[in-house]
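Q: Hand in one record:
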Amino acid sequence: MARSSQRKWVTGYLIAVAAIFIIYQFLFPWEGLPIGIYDFLQLWLPPTAVNESLVYVICALGLNIVVGYAGLLDLGYVAFWAIGGYCAGWFMSEFFYQINLHFFGSVARTAPGIHVNFWGVLLIGGLVCAFFGILIGGPTLRLKSDYLAIVTLGFGEIIPQVFFNGDNIAGFNLSNGTKGITILDPIPVGAKNIGPFDFGYKFIIFVLLAALMVFISLRLRKGKLGRAWLAIREDELAASMMGVPLMQTKLSAYAVGAFAGGLGGVAFATHVDGVYAERFNFSISIFLLAMVVLGGMGNVWGVIIGALLLSWINSTGLPAFGTTFNDKFGTSINFPSFTFLLFGLVLILMMLYKREGLIPESRLRLILHEGDAEEDLTSKESK
C-alpha cells in the first residue's frame, strides 16, 4: 500500500516536471505563443520563481530530517544555506584572485581564482555543512525543546553575521562583506555550459538535486537509522533504554540535514549568480520550518507540497495577486508586506485544527490524535 502511494506521488511529480520543462524550454521562446498566455505565465509562474521553489524544497527536506524525523527543533538552519552558498562563491569564481587553481572548471584556465567543477562544489558544500552540523550538534546533545532552539538560533545568527562582516577578518577578506561575491562559473553539462539565464536546464538540475534528497530521505526513513530517529522523536528516554545510541543518532541527523542545506546553498548561489550576506537572515529559518510544519513533519511528500506552496506565495503569488487586484480596482495596496501576517495566520489555524500538517506522517498523526477517540467516547457517555 505504501509503495503504491509512493509510486503515485513520483508519477505525479514526474508529469509536473516534464510539463514545466517543456513550457519553459520550448513554449516560452516560441514566437507563436499568444501574448496573453506569455504574460499570464510570466506573472503567475515565472521561471525564476519555480527554480527558487526547488531550492526551498531541497533545504526543507533537509530540515525535515532534523525536525520531522529526529524531533530536534532547529531555528538556525539558514546558517547551512549560507555556508553552502559561500562554498560556491569561494570555489566557483575569481574571488580569491591571488590563486590560480582549476579542477575541471568551466572557464578558461587563465582565469584567476579557484574554479572547481559545479558537481564537485556540490559535494564540497555538502560535506563542509555536514561538518558544521556535527559541530553544532555536539554541544546540544543534552539539550531539549526550548534550550535546543535557543542554541541553534544563536548558531543561525552568528554564521550570517560572520559573513556579513567578513570583508576584514584580521586583514583577510573572507566574504567581501555586504558587496557579496558575484559572477559564478557556469554549470558544465557535457559540451554545454549552463549560464544564469538557462532556466530550463537549471530547472532539471534542481529537480535532480531535490530527487536526490527525496531518495536519501526515504531510504534513511526505512532503515535502522531512520527508525532510531523516530524512536528518539517519540520518547528519547525509552529509545536510550532500548539501546539506541543517542549521541551518534542525533549527530547523524544534524549531519544529513546540514548536507542538504549545503546542496541548497550551492544551488541557490548558482540560481542568483552570486552570494549576498544580507539574504541569509533569521526569517529564512522560520520560513523553512513553516514549510515542514505546514506540509506535515516527517512526510517527504507533504514537505515538498508545503515548500512549493509557501515559496510560490512568497515570491510570486502575493505580488501577482496584488498587481491584479490593484489594476482592477485602482488601489495601491502593498500585498507582499502582509506575507508574514498571512503565514502566521495559517500556522495558527494549522495548530488549532490540523496539527499534523496537510499530508501528515501516519505515525505522527496517530500520536497527535491518540486522545481524541477517548475524549469523543467520554463526551458521548456523559450525554
Summary: The mean pLDDT is 87. Residues 1-45 form one domain. DSSP finds 15 helices and seven strands in the chain. The chain has two domains: 1-45, 49-382.
